[in-house]
Fold this protein.
Amino acid sequence: MGKLAKLGTVDVGNALGEILKCDIPANATADGLTKLARLVSAAVGASSVAILDTSLPSERRILAETDLSDADRDRWARSNGEELRGLDGVDVRVMPGTRGSVHLVTAGGDEGTAAERTLVLDHAAARGGAALEVARLRGDLDRALAQILETDERLLGRIGLDIHDGPTQHLSVALLEIQLLEADLADAASNGVELPDGLLGSMERIYETLGGALTEMRELIGHLRPAQFEDRRLSDIMRDAISGFEGRTGTEVEAAFEGEFPINGVSVTQRITFYRILQEALNNAHRHGQARNITVEAVDADDQTILRVHDDGGGFDAEQALRPRTGAPIARFGLHGMRDRTQMLGGTFTVRSSAGDGTHLEVVLPQWLPEDGDGSGA
C-alpha cells in the first residue's frame, strides 16, 4: 500500500477495514458509535474521541465517547459546530447525511502523518454518518408503520362495532322470531292443527344455522376488538389475545413467557404485530386445524423478541400456502398477512406444517425503539 501501509504503528488497511466493518445496528446506535470511537482512538492515537449531535440539548449531545475528561466533556457538550472547530488541538469532522449536526471530534493523535489521519477520520465520519442515516430512516419507517397499523386497528374496531350493531342484532331478532314461531306451531299442533311433514324439523335446523352464524359473528367481533397497546408489557398484550381466544372458543392454551418484557420494551408496531399474528395463529389452529392442544411461547431476549405457536391440529401444506403471489398486494390477514407484517419490520417468519402433523409457527423480530425511546412510535 506504499506510503499508507502504516499509520505509525497501526496498519492503515486493517484500521480502515475495521472502521468500515464496524457494526452500528439501528436498534443500538449508542453501542455501535462507542465501538467506532474506540477504533478511531486506536487508529490515530487520539487522547480522546467523541461523537456529538449539536442539535440536541447539551445534556444529551454526546452520543458516544472514549477517554473523555470531565472538563472536555463539559466543554464539548456546550459547544456548537463552529465553536468545536475553534477549539485548540481538536479535529472536527461533520458526519455526512446528518444535516450537519453530528460531529466526530478527536483530541490529540500522534499516529501517522496528517494525510493518514485525515484518511482514517474521513472514513470514520462517513461510516458513522451512514449508520445514523439508517437509524433515522428506520425510525421514520417505524413511525409510518405505527400510523398505518394504528389506523388499521381503529378501522377493525369500527367494523366490529358495525357488525355488532347491524348483522348481529338482526340475527338475534331472527332467532327470537323463530322461537316464537316454534311456540305458536307447537300450540297449533296441540290444538289438533295438522302441520306439514318436516316443518318443525326444518324450523329447528334453521334455528341452529342462525345460532351458529350468530356465534361466529360474536367470535369475529371479539377478534376485531382493538387491544390496548400503549404503556403495556408485550407479555400482557399477548395474554389478552390468549384469554380472548379461550373465552370465545373454550379451548385452553398453554402459555409460557421468558424474559422481563418491560413496559414499552418494543415499539408499538411490534406490539400490534405480535398481537395480531398470535390472534390469527390461534384462530387458524381452532377453525382450520381443529386443534385440541395449543402452546404459546414468547421470549424477550437481549436483541430480539420471539413468538412460537404450536398446535396438534390437522396441518396443511405450508410450502404451497406460502408460495409467492406475483403482483399481489401486502396482505393483512392469514399466513401471507403474518409473513408480510413480520418482514415489514425486518423479522423472520417460519411455519412448518404437514397433513396430520400439526403446525409450528415462529416469529422473530429485532427489538427496536424509535429515537424517543418510549416505544410509542410517535
Notes: The first strand starts at residue 6 and ends at 7. The chain has two domains: 2-141, 228-378.
